[in-house]
Amino acid sequence: MRLVFAGTPAVAVPSLRALATGPHEIVAVVTRNDAPLGRKRVLTPSPVAQAAGDLGIPIIKADRLDADVTERITALAPDLGVIVAYGGLVREPLLSAPAHGWINLHFSLLPRWRGAAPVQRALIAGDTVTGASVFQLVAALDAGAVFDEERYDVPPGATTADVLDALAEIGSPVLARVVDGISDGTAVATPQLGEPTLAPKLTLDDGALDFTQDAETLLHRISGVTPEPGAHTTLDGARFKVLRAAPTEAPPLPPGRVAASGREVIVGTGTRPLRLDSVQPAGKGAMAAGDWFRGLRSDEPVLGA
User: Is the dihedral of CA 199, 205, 208, 214 positive or negative?
Assistant: First the structure.
């Protein structure tokens, strides 16, 4: 089959490489425009663009799948469109341009967590099982019938970055199998069953920590918003990021109060305290919580104040 692949971030690269080594021809890769990165804001191709260049596949760069992109893709006469975290919507007439339409590798077990941030929302909610689903793209958000899926047990303490990396790897062979099945006519899609939950894109406010909440809720939020938008609170009125935290058996503290307990730096919550492992104070880089705490002038810092 002739494939068009649409994707942008690093989590889409394993799928592109899996399809590129298969029996099908990728006639074009669609990815978002180069973006400014680093302190010098150097325009940098997306990870998918870089991988496509290495593979020698023609690249279409666009931030929106508009009429021009639709015309360019349609002219290639693709049999199937494949999308993995492109960062934009496929609408008609592009949705129907390939002979077999479009399929999407989505990082959840549908219909749970339809939307732009399925892994983030799953971790914030405390889900211990998630997965990767390949479904037929339709006009409604992530609502198409599912061809195949792979379940994944979330390790304790795993962040969004950790889980996305894992799902990118386990999802790519599932995607390749579905493409093969569509090609030979054996693929069967099953309508989604159950009540959908939605996973809208995170905002900065989603990373705000409220230490009056229970320890488990806080750990789930830290996992879900790491690395972006990041878990944050305030210290003496300035932004303070919590990069890594973990459960501890240390004695309780008032919510937000930070103290040393043996070799641990702990913070009080609405229930039991948490151990702070890695933090980033305002205007500084990431550091071990112990190094930060030893450099404090105050003996009783309170996060959220």
Answer: negative
Reading the block at residue 49, the tokens are 């663009």
Neighbours of 28 (CB within 10 A): 22
SS3 annotation, 67-104: HHHHHHHHHCCCCEEEEECCCCCCCCCHHHCCCCCEEE
Query: What angle separates helix 13-20 from helix 47-55, to the nearest 10 degrees?
Result: 20
User: Which pair of structure tokens corresponds to residue 190?
Assistant: 């099953």
Question: In the numeric block, which tokens belong to residue 168?
Answer: 């990118």
Whole-prediction pTM value?
0.94
| Six-digit token string for 45 | 């191709």
DSSP structure class, residue 11: G
Closest CA to 199 of 145, 102, 88, 124: 124
| 276: nearest Cα among 231, 239, 225 | 231
Pairing state of beta strands 80-84 and 2-7?
A: parallel
Point out the residues of the chain with pLDDT beneath 50: none
| pLDDT score recorded for residue 37 | 80
Asked if 2 and 78 touch (Cβ cutoff 8 Å), the reply is yes
Residues 172/5, Cβ–Cβ less than 8 Å: no
φ and ψ at residue 228, rounded to 5 degrees: -125, 140
Distance of CA 6 to the CA centre of its chain: 16
The C-alpha atoms of residue 302 and residue 240 are separated, in whole angstroms, by: 11
Q: How do residues 227-275 score in pLDDT, each as one tens digit?
A: 999 999 999 899 999 999 999 999 999 999 999 998 999 999 999 999 9
Alpha helices in 93-143 (DSSP H): 118-124
Number of H helices, E strands in the chain: 7, 15
What is the arrangement of strands in the sheet containing 129-136, beginning at the earlier edge strand?
A: 59-61, 25-31, 2-7, 80-84, 102-106, 129-136, 146-153
